[in-house]
């Protein structure tokens, strides 16, 4: 029987309104009633992830920034895996030489240098996920969405490297041409020792320290709780979820997951707008997976 569930958020736990459905909440409550611990494992930072959980009344441990930071249920940071300044400078040079828009997730939140492009990239992601929307509607949703994400703006990313109180956790890189442009850049960055490149959508790549992966973080949490990996369940939809789907005894891909992720997971559930997380949790309970 599973004793720990780790779920991704965007495209997984969250629906198309960026919220957690009543069905998913009910399933999480049922799991907790049975003594199964629930946590999220997200590419979002702590401040980005917390509002949706608070709105749903869910208090849980959190793996954030793809595994770069882990928090306990009370919100206390357990450990951080950052990117050294020398490595960060190499990544920045590659991205800027290729004119790629990027943001930096840090221990002090997410930073951008271009407000208009930030909205444009989020709008493009929303429009791709919800094709029935007009682009104007997507822009409006993006602007509202950013208000919740606590994105901060600086004139130059060098400010972050120069601040001794800030640790860089992740680069989030966007291009509307998707893999055609980002693929070669991701391969180049991936050749830098101690870095790993994943993705949470067709139009982005994410760069973390090689030790900052969801799978590594899930294993760390499970070990601290004394739970064997055979009794851990993970749920995800994209490539930044791959590592945790591979290490868990029970793994579910969302119905809207990338085809390669469905191949990796042991089971497939419904989509994120069809309460797929709740369905997976109840199936695991009812079938004693």
From TrEMBL:
A GO term for molecular function: magnesium ion binding
Keywords: Hydrolase
Keyword Hydrolase found: yes
Name this protein carries in UniProt: Cof-like hydrolase
Keyword 4Fe-4S listed: no
Family annotation (Pfam families): Hydrolase_3 (PF08282)
Originating organism: Enterococcus canis
Database matches in InterPro entries: Cof (IPR000150), HAD-like_sf (IPR036412), HAD-SF_hydro_IIB (IPR006379), HAD_sf (IPR023214)
Listed GO CC annotations: cytosol
Superkingdom in the source lineage: Bacteria
